[in-house]
Amino acid sequence: MPSLSTLLFFVLAVSVLVAIPGPNHIYIVTRGISQGRIAGLASAAGVETGTLVYSVAAAGGLAALIASSALAYDAVRYLGAAYLIFLGLRALLRYTPPSAPGAVAAVPLRRVYLEGVLVNVLNPKVALFFVAFLPQFVEPARGPVALQVVVLGLIMATVGMVSDVAYALTAGTLGDRMRSRPSLARGQRWVTGITYLALGILAALTGRPART
């Protein structure tokens, strides 16, 4: 296992990184605003489950494969972009009953959770994080590398969950206020859909980082 000083420094570094808003946070916020705190929390749980998936993948070397292979990286990148664009189009084209202007149909929490998993798993930058950043905290002399990677991944998921919960609760509170004001609620669907579309386009246009 890594030394205590290494673990403490890792927690500090990860806390700074996860505090920076990214696609995962935007997914959580849009879910929280559109469907409330519980959906925001479910999406946060899905996102961090995706982090754990990458932790296990990194321990087995899959993350390194994605990072080193241009084809694998682009495949994951375009799948992620396509999925975000699909979410955006679905939000924009979803039918809203005339009797409830601005209302957003509730999405089952299980699907909210699974979409959170996919949003994170289909983000190749998470794989690059596990390849470029996390190994700096692995100490081969202190035990099996795979086990250390999993432990560090669990720590990252825990720190990330704290940040995600804060985003989810804040977005859920904001969403409650928006739903109480029909003039704001009517634009909610458009904000959600355009946000997803923008994220998908950005993901598709973001090139593979240059290797040094």
- Count of structural domains: 1
The dominant shape is globular
Largest sheet: none
Number of strands: 0
Helix and strand string, N-terminal first?
Answer: HHHHHHHHH
The residue fraction in helices comes out at over 70%
| N→C terminal distance | 29 Å
Low-confidence parts, pLDDT < 50 over ≥5 residues? 97-104
Summarize model confidence as the mean pLDDT: 77
- Strand-residue proportion: under 5%
The total count of helices amounts to: 9
By helix and strand content, what is the structural category? Answer: mainly alpha
Radius of gyration: 18 Å
Please describe what this structure looks like.
This protein is mainly α. The protein has one domain (4-205). Helix content is 77%, strand content 0%. Helix 2 runs antiparallel to helix 9 and helix 4 packs across helix 7. The protein starts with a helix and ends in a 7-residue tail after the last helix. The model is unreliable at 97-104 (pLDDT under 50).
